[in-house]
Amino acid sequence: MTSQKNNQNSLLNPIVGVFQRFPLIVLCLLVLGLSACSTNPSKKTDAALAKKAAEQRKKDKKKAKKEAEKALQPKELTAIDKKMRFRPVFADSLGKLSKYYHQFHFAMDGDWIYAASQNGTVVKLDKQTGKETFRVNLKRPLTAGLAVDSEGIYVGNLDGELVSLNKTDGSERWRKQLSSEVVSPPAVDGLNVIVQTNDGAVVNLNPQTGEQRWRQDTQIPALTLRGASSGAIFGPFVAVGAANGILAIFDLKTGQKRWADRVAVPTGDTEIERLVDVDSTPVVQGNLLIAVSYQGNLTAYNITSGLKAWSQPASSYKDLAVNGDKVFVSQSDGKIIAFNSNSGQKAWEQSGLERRKPSAVAVSENALFVTDYAGILHALDPNTGQFIGRKSLTLPDRPIPGHNKTIQVKRLMKPNPPIRVQSLVDKNTLYVFANNGQLQALSFEPINKKAK
Asked: Any alpha helices (H) in 76-221, and if so which ranges?
């Protein structure tokens, strides 16, 4: 027992000796040791909290990104009570349209439908059977088409030329080199061909020869939308919208500007925010001339005086449609809105096609028709804006009566092609032109539901 105690004392003696000789140093070392022991867990806790916070920020950022992406996604379609059915009549193929924005229109004259595609193809079809009278290829990409008058067909090509074809056989009548591309269908009335080019020039050409009668230039902003307004001819005047947000009225004979006014005033700090192009064709409704701008307004003017009758906030670069006392706008955000043409008051708003890139509205007596990015045709009630019909537009798997059998090739059977071209209505038949070149005619009729 005594030996063990002596051993312990021998072990402690050096430590006690050091403490006796350097008490202050030993005390400091003990304090530092205790401090280190007490702070190490805290440092570990702080590091864990920082890591957890970083992970949470990463999760929040990912969630915010998903929500932002979801907000930009096309709105999902919901079930509707279908009150209208569609039946295929005939189909044809013209050639693909670009994925970029373009302004190609149908034209109808008597028993014939005329259509053009970006690859240079121009066709004339029997509107009831789809039988082709002629098909010509102009060998150059087209940038706008098409318009027809009593004798000619008019299209613009990538070289900045306006080309006129004979309505009977598709042969070339004349071509006119202009200062820039024609990016909207011309306005024609048999006596005048009004064209707006991409550099802002408004030109009147002789429909027989292509000779230029007059030219008016408009100021173009640094940044504009791809497209231009087609003119609206009424009486001895033509109304044309410009990329600077101005609607101008010109004398058809002299080119003199009668009056002009801003449909929208540019606002914002960036060039994109200041875009106010008037790219849609103005429409005449009674004694009113109505135009819409992108990121601006829908505005009505008295035709005679040029005084503003009313104005409502709206944003669109697609053609307006009118029916009765309503004007219909296919907005850039996908909403379809009806306004009273006399007062400007909003009649209804349909938001079911938000972000689905609907086409301009086509009007029949009892229905409105729009197509979307997914190749779906929608019918709306013009009085309420409610959906009354819907059809996914694909080519039929088998030939049908009147069907052009030359298109019965599987590579053309692409389902649900995007559709940007405004449809054309003739009585109870609707003509639709998809981006992949599919041209279809469909009949439509109300569904007679049996009483329960």
From this structure: none
